[in-house]
Design goal:
By secondary structure, this protein is α+β, with helices and mostly antiparallel strands. The chain is 25% helix and 30% strand. The protein is built from 4 helices and 10 strands; from the N terminus they run E-H-E-E-E-H-E-E-E-H-E-E-H-E.
Length: 161
């Protein structure tokens, strides 16, 4: 079993319910959820003229290959009604493979570790919460957090945890 970190985000519809549904669908996939971070309300990144997001990270264990895990995540996104209209645009759900054990993947459809992860506080904050000792490219997540602004990332009161 490989340890993998997923990032979930939503800014359309009933955001918290979207996260709950995605987590429920992930429990039916061939993987085991071992930890779920708190939910954070975050400002949009990339394309800023849209509603705030709810984000969280999940730690899982799986025997799926990175490509098969991507396929599972995309099936869930599709089942929930995700339509890819514009890069960094509004979405009902986004499930990203952030870190897959110590593997690196560089393919057109999948890059692991996830691109720009070290620049995205909305990913680094929940990752740090899940595993304070987690390292990326030989450097602790906390070190990357010292280099980015966490302004606009707020705790979200939730029923999930």
């Amino acid at each position: 079993m490989e340890k993998v970190y997923l990032g979930l985000g939503t800014n359309r519809g009933l955001r918290e319910e979207n996260l709950i549904e995605a987590i429920g669908l992930l429990t039916k996939a061939p993987l085991r959820i071992t930890a779920i971070s708190s939910i954070y309300e975050t400002k949009p990144w990339g394309y800023e003229e849209q509603s705030d997001f709810l984000n969280l990270c999940i730690e899982i264990e799986t025997e799926l290959s990175p490509q098969k895990l991507l396929t599972e995540c995309q099936k869930i996104e599709g089942k929930m009604g995700r339509v890819r209209e514009e890069k960094w645009g509004p979405r009902i759900i986004d499930i990203d493979i952030l870190i897959y054990a110590n593997r690196e993947v560089n393919k057109a459809e999948l890059t692991i570790p996830h691109p720009k992860i070290t620049e995205r506080a909305f990913v680094l904050v929940p990752l740090q919460e899940l595993n304070p000792n987690l390292q990326l490219e030989g450097k602790k997540i906390s070190s990357y957090l010292e280099e980015v602004s966490t302004a606009g990332i707020d705790d979200y009161e939730s029923e999930i945890k």
